[in-house]
Amino acid sequence: MRKLDLLLVAAILVIAATLRLWAPWEAVLGSPRVNFLETDAWYHVRLVESQVHNFPHRITTDPYASPNGQYVAVAPLLDILIATAVLLTQGPAASTEYIARVAAFAPAVMGVLAVAAVWLLGTIAFDRRAGLMAGLLAAVLPGHFLDRTLLGFVDHHALEVLLAFATLVSLTWAIRLAGPPVPGPRSLIPASAAGLCLGLYLLTWSSGAYFVAILAGWILLTPVVGTSETVRSAARATATLAATALVIVLVFQDRALFRYDAQVASLAVLLAASALVWWLAARPKPVVSAVSVSSVSSAALVLLMVLAVSVWQADVLRQIGSDIARFSPDPTRMAVLEARPLFMYSGNWDWAQPWVFFRSGFYVGLLALAWLCLDIWRSRRLDHLLIAVFTAANFAATVGQNRFGYYLVPATALVAGWLCARVFDWGGVPHAGNPQPGVTSRLPLRRELAVVLVAGLVVAPNLVPAAQSTARAGGMAGYWAAAMTWLRTATPKPFASPSYYLARYASANPPADYTVMNWWDQGYWLIQTAHRVPVSNPTQNGAPQSAAFYTATDQAAALAVLAAQRARYVLVDWELPFRDGENGAIAGRFQHLSDWAGIATSRFYSLCYERQRESDPWAPAWLYTEAYYQTMAYRLMVLGGRGAAPANNTWVVRTDQRRDAAGQEFCEVSEAQVFRSAEEASRVAASRGPQFRVVGRTPWQPAFPVPPVTGLRVVQEFREPTQKATETPMVRIFEVVPAQ
């Protein structure tokens, strides 16, 4: 390798590290407590804490995770790597603060290594210029990959990408060694290395069968593109990869892990597909065509899968169907931002969303992918086909759930790097392989135009958005940290042993003496920071029970939910009820509560439109029913458990169904009048007919009489430092009042 290339690669990695460390440093490490950027990080620290103190044993069933304990459905590799780093540097007595700081650096380190893997793959599969451009783009493109490799974003995503691209690098190396177009000795070393990387990848992510399925799709397409010799070589390498990864999973993976069977089944299918493609490709050409090899392999494989699954384990088929169904829109999944479809991320269809997330990288990547596919038909390169299949699959997956953007960004960087090298060739830009290229076109300034196209369309539009996106606030606000500290220090421990938090647990453990009712977003904070047991956590375990409590309009029913969950304390925060948002929208998590409780939103509110004059534009009119103001989320957070007797805030409205110019039906508020009391409003509405309704029009101010909550009492409240004592706090904690 040329010295200049080494310097350029070093510069790219420095840029990648700077972007991932500089901006979030103050938010994450600028205070005595490490403030991670996302919720799952706190639970990874919880798992690492336990493993450091009980090495090599890890938690498999966590009594702190839910009222009756919960199996830890987290693949082990990320936590093992962090725990090992802690043990090597400070030993088993390392403090929680030190463990948190080591964990905070993990995603940035892995992200920089992933950038190096993208550069290496581009160099091996394409050429040095494409590799350098791919590495640069992977370092600076905005989007999910940059976001998930920031300092403090402790989750398995960065390690996933690193190991996925390490697998692609090794597999591409195996393909290039095994046969044309680059002759060389046949070797199982790179294929085995690819299998090792794939096995480690599956130890990182329980849903890793996703990547295995992509590899299976690629091997089934190779007969359409390659020659019989190159196809056999690729199939041999892929079979070695699958067998190696399968051994790793069978030996090291937790067999109780959710989707363990899917991992084993997917690797078995990949192994069978590779063997089938190799056997069919070895048949005489006049008998078996390339297309028939691919189609016969696919059909035989599908039949084999159905037969094997039906005989072996039907649960695997249901599991695969469930995973595929995750890509369809669902109200409960819409509550998780990363699970939303790309074009529905804002809640409404938005064609501009790829630009918002990925800037020009998304569109240049699409163009590059299309161009690469056309070039593959000419070159018959199976390594290029592998890259194209991987990129296309991640485009499709990201459209279904935007979370897969962390794969898509480095994939688009890779194909965009190849496209940039082609543009440089078109412009006659000199390089080491051709220091004096000739350009026959009469187009003036062609070389300069090529540089401007790459710099102006591919690189420049992404630099400022990338830098801006790295400046993020920490995930746990100060008032939440204070609430967690108070729970940890001022409430009884949930288990008899005072050191139970770091104990080595059995597969069955005693249930907690009591739990804390919460919405699932704060579940991991309660576990790791407060050392308390939440009713619900970010796996959505317990979410239906929490939603049932917060949406309950009857105090007896709400207290029954608390009793069933053994909840002694209740957490409410300012984001649970609705509140007025920008541009006539509403904000808050109440819609998610309703969805998880399985209650139609019409029970609590409806959206209509109104205008003062015919010439005015339509404005949203949110109408809140009496049931909304009776919910526990509203009564506890907004009213602090106190009763309310509102005046001059109850409305009688007339609603009519209308159709707009496009034929879409909508609700219009044609009349609206405010009354001194809900009783008066009810009498008037009853006298005017069924088109008239009694509603509230403000989500925070009560519009109906609300009785006080007698089964709970406020024990602590937490505010922002700038708030006044008379202002509504950000978080309230209630304690269940024992029945007399």
Describe this structure in words.
With 740 residues, this protein is α+β, with helices and mostly antiparallel strands. Among the domains are: 478-573, Rossmann fold (3-Layer(aba) Sandwich), CATH 3.40.50.12610; 579-707, no CATH class. The protein contains 28 helices and 13 strands. Strand 1 (61-62) and strand 2 form a beta hairpin. The N and C termini lie far apart (81 Å).
Quick summary of this structure?
The chain is of the alpha+beta class. It contains 28 helices and 13 strands.
Identify the strand order in the major beta sheet. 3-4-13-12
Described by its quaternary structure, the protein is single chain
Question: Helix segment count?
Answer: 28
Counting helices, strands and paired strands, the structural category is alpha+beta
Shape, please?
globular
C-alpha Rg (nearest Å): 29 Å
Q: What percentage of the residues does DSSP assign to strands (E)? A: 5-15%
Number of strands: 13
Give the N-terminus to C-terminus distance in angstroms.
Answer: 81 Å
* Estimated helix fraction: 40-55%
User: Major β-sheet, in short?
Assistant: 4 strands, mixed
Give the uncertain stretches in residue-range form. Answer: 180-185
Mean pLDDT: 90
Which keywords apply here?
740 residues, Rossmann fold, alpha+beta, three-stranded antiparallel beta sheet
